[in-house]
Design brief:
Blueprint (H helix, E strand, L loop, with lengths): L1 E6 L3 H16 L1 H23 L6 H19 L2 E8 L7 E7 H24 L8 H4 L3 H12 L5 H20 L5 H6 L2 H11 L4 E4 L8 E4 H14 L1
Parallel strand pairs: 1-2
Antiparallel strand pairs: 2-3, 4-5
Length: 234
């Protein structure tokens, strides 16, 4: 029998941790420590009994049973753990000799995480590009980072022209209902500029360039053409 757990971009780290646990609990030193702990507990019981102190044998029997069960679950009852990485399959792998005291709680918590996140993502219809079960805990952050780098503008004049264009042309078209908020959220910058210029062709804005660092007044239609040209060369 084997158990499967899911990871999201950290399958190699999970395997490293499980291999370390397997090595520790299989070592003679670990088994020796368990035997020493049991011996010390029994010695304390005998000491209390020999000196006439009250001893709750029912509690002692329960404790000894728990200690033996813990020792067996850490050293004797072992299984194979299959690590399946949902976002990076190359990080998947198999780890042998994992004690039941480790893999059983791990499997329960991991499966609960998987079911709960899938349920919420299905209910709220999250796109695959940001859903936890598709891209992992850092996937959405990575997408935002990539998007930020993708639209990063190096030209200070172009950046100022865009800001001014959005203030004077895009927002005006939004307020007047000539373009929709959904379009501004989802469309490309060039398409938004084109739509705003078509909606507010005669409204004026300020266009900045190296030849006009202080800005020059342009209509939204004129500024749109200049800004789109600058975007192509940025």
């Amino acid at each position: 029998m084997s158990v499967e757990i899911y990871t999201y971009g950290y399958g190699d780290l999970m395997q490293t941790a499980l291999n370390a646990i397997a090595a520790i609990v299989s070592s003679s030193n670990f088994k020796g420590m368990l035997a020493t702990a049991i011996a010390l507990y029994l010695a304390r019981v005998f000491w209390n009994t020999a000196h006439g102190r009250y001893v709750d044998f029912g509690r002692i029997l329960k404790n000894i049973t728990l200690i033996i069960a813990l020792a067996l679950s850490l050293t004797q009852i072992k299984d194979t753990v299959i690590v399946t990485d949902k976002t990076t399959p190359s990080l998947s792998g198999i780890v042998d000799n994992i004690p039941i005291a480790v893999y059983l709680p791990l499997w329960f918590s991991n499966r609960a995480e998987y079911v709960i996140t899938r349920t919420f993502e299905t209910a709220f219809s999250l796109p695959d590009g940001v859903s936890y079960n598709s891209v992992g805990y850092a996937g959405g952050v990575k997408n935002l980072r990539d998007a930020a780098y993708y639209i990063r503008i190096e030209d200070a004049y172009l950046k100022e022209s865009l800001v001014q264009f959005y203030k004077d042309c895009v927002f005006a078209a939004l307020i007047e209902g000539l373009i929709s908020p959904d379009q501004v959220k989802r469309d490309t910058v060039k398409n938004i500029i084109t739509a705003a210029a078509s909606a507010e062709p005669s409204r004026t804005t300020v266009y900045y360039s190296s030849s006009n660092p202080d800005g020059v007044t342009k209509t939204c239609e004129e500024a749109a053409g200049l800004i789109k040209t600058d975007l192509d060369t940025d």
